[in-house]
Specification:
This protein is of the alpha/beta class and 736 residues long. Helix 8 links the parallel strand 4 (144-145) and strand 5. An eight-stranded parallel β-sheet has the order 9-6-5-4-3-2-1-10. It has a six-stranded mixed β-sheet with strand order 11-16-15-14-12-13, with helices on both faces. The structure holds beta-D-glucopyranose (BGC). Beta-D-glucopyranose (BGC) binds next to loops. Beta-D-glucopyranose is lined by residues 102, 146, 199, 278-279, 490.
């Protein structure tokens, strides 16, 4: 009787849907399904639960009752299949579960952390890296990833700075789009792509003092100029889902912020996909003190337009109560359910709920030779050469004796970082192992740990003398320093961004040997590197380079690969400079360190960072020609061309990242001293010259006006082209 009724209802609904010719097959199907659902089944679809257990049986009751829409942190295709069978076979309507996961930079083959990838400025490779992550995740039964994280961040104390694309809006937005395209591919229903969930909407990167989950506060101008554009880029690239931030905008938590979610995200930005909370951000509204109890918190979230509840189960528990009381309409619930079902439909779950659970494919895909090779290239492209005096690097692979020293020389887990997903420590190559496989058989390698990483304490200084001895016996010394995987990432805020423990002490002692010192850095955030630079002849920022990190580093150290990455974030020289970024607004008093105190500067330290945004060296050298501008006057509906010739004047092939910045000289609102507006990667053989060219259109000169709308003003502009934000040539032009 029950089944007959259900079918009858479905029939009535489908026939009524058929009367509307404009409805797609998907809409008709979803209308039909919603028509069959009870209110309990509807809120069940909005419920996203975590599951890290080993016996899916535990989930049987709630799944069979239709109380689970999606699961995060599950455990591979075989287990997901068991869970899926419960949903399809045991629940009344058989709606499949959507499996979701934090596939941030790789599933099993771990790529460099996102901040590192950003240092490549190589959008094709970044897209490919996301595609590899998606391919592996999908093969392991995942349908959606909580990535890309696109929070612009200017505070390296915040551990999550490693998850996004750095400090710059232009570069960050390009990377956001590349990652969405990489994860989602051209066919979301394909079993080698996953839906992307861009996060954290919006402004999480602005938290104060570097402490995770702390408050932040910024103007609407900052929201529009700095924090929204990467999200807009993700939306324009077709992102399927968005996650709310833990934090607030205008002191209203994102999860309850109708202005942010409805007016801005849905209406202004045009996002029509699935919107979810972050972990328990509904009950957090009570903790923050904007809701008196969970019921009111739930009401605020659904009113703000949040579709899916991650982990708190408040929607499941309280939405039916709110509907009964007439405080939430069933139409509101239907809207949210529709977003969940559309997401499921798009990834193909209604065509074949088991399509992503092919164990053979999973085995063949995870950590495949091809994925490893491509990930190694990504790691190499991500690395930034910060110093290389007297061409200390590359080292000769036939060197007689090489000392490899440092608490991170044999690290594996630290190379994968905090968001290592299903990466396995034993599958990572350490820097030491990488060096062993590159070094000639005849060479001698001496290892010394040098000091111990014991949280942030100074520890293991008694190991320094042995390390010094090892250095004295060697012809060159590679010192591998950095931070442990847990020191950055979520919850990884630190007050100090100097290398933890006795690492600086170790390096100082080693440098006194007079041997050539090459420091390799394993870290996920900018560190203060004054002592490192002082005590090393060469410094390679290797970041947290992932599974193939050790090989990638070694091939660079011995010259098989010429590094060309450039910093996507400023490296300060002192914590007191934070927040520090290159595109600060113009001020009345100049940046200047000298006797005149009425300047925008410090009395005790320099105002310049140690390494500016966009900085990075190479084993070869480049010579920039003069800027060519097709016209110094630009009409509003026209464009002008700007180009520059770059020559590789060294002995090795390399890639130079040519950067274009613009400055609006006079404007009705204060504008940055310069802003990145373009970049081009030039692959150059020794002696070869190529031209980087950019088209300048009036559109690029737009800014957020006093009314917070995009605006444009005629007048004079300066353009800068060069090798970093601080090493540029300039020319002027005007918009007429
Ligand atoms: C993080 C998110 C993450 C989620 C699920 C939260 O604590 O802020 O970025 O996707 O957990 O693991």
């Amino acid at each position: 009787m029950k089944n007959i009724l259900i079918l009858l209802t479905a029939f009535i609904c489908i026939s009524s849907c058929n009367t509307s010719q404009s409805k797609s097959e998907m809409d008709q199907f979803i209308d039909g399904l919603i028509g069959k659902m009870t209110i309990e089944e509807k809120v069940g679809q909005l419920n996203l639960i975590p599951y890290e257990g080993n016996t899916p049986e535990e989930l049987k009751d709630i799944i069979a009752a239709g109380k689970v829409g999606a699961i995060l942190k599950s455990n591979g295709a075989a287990q997901n299949r068991i869970i899926q069978e419960m949903a399809v076979k045991e629940s009344r309507l058989g709606i499949p579960i959507m499996f979701q996961e934090d596939v941030i930079h790789g599933y099993r083959t771990i790529a460099p952390v996102p901040l590192a990838e950003a240092a490549s400025w190589d959008l094709k490779l970044i897209q490919q890296s996301a595609a590899i992550a998606a391919q592996e995740a999908a093969a392991a039964g995942i349908h959606l990833t909580y990535a890309p994280m696109v929070d612009i961040c200017r505070d390296p104390r915040w551990g999550r700075i490693l998850e996004a694309g750095g400090e710059d809006v232009f570069l960050g937005s390009k990377i956001a789009a590349a990652r969405v395209k990489g994860f989602q591919g051209t066919d979301l229903a394909s079993t080698s792509t996953v839906m992307a969930c861009v996060k954290h909407f919006a402004g999480y990167g602005a938290i104060l003092a570097g402490r995770d989950y702390n408050i932040q506060d910024f103007s609407d101008r900052e929201l529009y100029e700095t924090y929204l554009p990467p999200f807009q880029a993700a939306v324009d690239a077709g992102v399927g889902s968005v996650m709310c931030a833990y934090t607030s905008v205008n002191a209203i938590p994102a999860t309850a912020n109708k202005y942010l979610l409805h007016d801005i995200l849905r209406n202004e930005m045009g996002f029509d996909g699935l919107l979810m909370t972050d972990w328990s951000t509904i009950p957090n509204l009570v903790k923050i003190g904007v809701a008196k109890n969970d019921t009111l918190a739930t009401l605020m979230a659904i009113n703000a337009g949040v579709d899916m509840d991650m982990t708190s189960e408040k929607y499941l528990e309280l939405l039916p109560v709110l509907v009964k009381k007439g405080l939430v309409s069933e139409a509101e619930i239907n809207n949210a359910v529709r977003k969940v079902l559309v997401a499921k439909y798009k990834v193909g779950l209604f065509s074949d709920p088991y399509a992503y659970f092919d164990i053979e494919n999973e085995n063949a895909t995870l950590l495949s030779a091809d994925n490893i090779e491509k990930t190694k290239l990504m790691a190499q492209k991500s690395m930034v050469l910060l110093k290389n005096d007297h061409q200390t690097l590359p080292l000769n692979a036939t060197i007689k004796t090489l000392a490899v020293i440092g608490p991170f020389a044999k690290s594996k887990k630290d190379l994968m970082g905090w968001w290592a997903c299903k990466g396995i420590e034993n599958e990572v190559t350490s820097v030491y192992e990488g060096i062993l496989s590159e070094l000639s058989q005849k060479s001698k390698i001496i290892y010394a740990e040098g000091c111990i990483i014991d949280s942030f304490r100074i520890s293991g200084t008694n190991l320094i003398p042995a390390a010094v001895k090892a250095a004295q016996m060697a012809d060159a010394v590679v010192v591998v320093l950095g931070e442990e995987y847990w020191m950055s990432g979520e919850g990884g805020g630190t007050a100090s961004i100097r290398l933890p423990g006795a690492q600086e002490q170790l390096l100082e002692a080693l440098s006194k040997t007079g041997k050539p010192i090459v420091t390799v850095l394993i870290n996920g955030r900018p560190y203060i590197l004054d002592k490192v630079v002082e005590n090393s002849q060469a410094v390679l920022e290797a970041w947290m380079p992932g599974t193939t990190g050790g090989n990638a580093v070694a091939e660079i150290l011995f010259g098989k690969f010429n590094p060309g990455g450039k910093l996507p974030v400023t490296f300060p020289i002192h914590e007191g400079q934070i927040p520090i970024y290159y595109n600060y607004r113009q001020t009345s008093h100049p940046f200047y360190t000298g006797p005149d105190r009425y300047t925008n500067s410090y009395r005790d330290i320099q105002h310049e960072p140690l390494f500016p945004f966009g900085f990075g060296l190479s084993y070869t050298t480049y010579e920039y020609g003069k800027i060519n501008l097709s016209n110094s006057k630009l009409a509003e509906n026209d464009s002008i061309m700007v180009s520059i010739e770059v020559k590789n004047t060294g002995q090795l092939a390399g890639t130079e990242i040519v950067q274009l910045y613009l400055r609006d000289n006079v404007c009705s609102v204060t504008r940055p001293v310069k802003e990145l507006k373009g970049f081009e990667l030039l692959d150059l053989l020794p002696g070869q010259s190529k031209t980087a060219s950019f088209t300048i259109k009036a559109d690029m000169l737009k800014f957020i006006g006093a009314d917070l709308k995009p605006s444009i003003e005629k007048g004079d502009f300066t353009l800068y082209i060069g090798a970093s934000s601080a090493n540029v040539q300039e020319l002027s032009f005007s918009l007429e």
